[in-house]
Amino acid sequence: MAKKQKQEDAPAGSPAWMATFSDLMNLLLCFFVLLFSMSTVDAQKFEEVAASFSQTFSVFTAGALSIGDGLLISNGVSQLNELDDYINSTGKSEEADDMSSVGADGTELEEAQVLAEVEAMKMEKSEEMAELVEEAIAEAGMEDMIEMDFTSQYVQLTLNGSLLFDSGSAKLSANATAVMDQVGIILERYGESVIEIEGHTDSVPFVGGAYASNNELSSARALAVFYYLIDHTNLDPSLLKHSGRGEYCPIADNSTPEGRALNRRVEIKIYNSLSDY
């Protein structure tokens, strides 16, 4: 009869695999705790960050509703739907509005400063041109025949109508040739951009003659100056404009003969290269 083998006692303590299993369970527990903690959002911190980005870069403006109601957001952040009331109660909204208004004012101030600088540059450009034109008029000895003025957009030459046209006529008189030749030289030398010719009359109704009204007469006179410049200068016709303004832009009182004489005029505006025209 064979001897019965002696049964060995089981080793003391837990099996070796239990240590590995316990470590795995601990790791899984930590992992799920981490997931849970990530799904629970600190409302105050989140809204502060969101408000900061929204006010500064407008990042969340279009997607604001998705944070509270979007299908792609987990249920763990559903409590964010009440954050607006919370933020308003802390005064953050008013602070953000104040910062926004300051930014808007700063932008407006910056734009105004840029516009002021551009306007100053235009004025300086016109002033330089005006000095040269004034010298040319003085050299020709026509200070009494050609008046000059300027704005930030143009330098204006004003010619009295009696020097250029006979009463009721739109044909340049013989005495107008010398004046128009000098004007042509000035325009060729200093014209940088568009040149506009405007005819003006007084308010006395036009009766009889070749023109039905002061509007037609002023237009015809501006056109006569235009044609003279085209025929006697090398100016680009595409840069020359002419218009009749009639009696609607007086520079003096039409109730006196002296005032009406001043209103009968031709204005030539030489726009500078920086003008908005």
Describe the global form: rod-shaped
What separation lies between the terminal Cα atoms? 127 Å
Instruction: Indicate the proportion of strand residues.
Output: 5-15%
The average pLDDT is: 81
The profile of the biggest β sheet is: 5 strands, mixed
Structural class: alpha+beta
Number of strands: 5
- What order do the SSEs take from the amino end to the carboxyl end, as H and E? HHHHHEEHHEHEHE
Helix content: 40-55%
Uncertain runs are 57-78
Q: Supply Rg.
A: 43 Å
The helix tally amounts to 9
Order of strands across the biggest sheet?
1-2-5-3-4
Q: Overview of this structure, please?
A:
By secondary structure, the protein is an alpha+beta fold. Strands 1-2-5-3-4 form a five-stranded mixed beta sheet. Residues 57-78 have low confidence and may be disordered. It is built from nine helices and five strands. Helix content is 53%, strand content 11%.
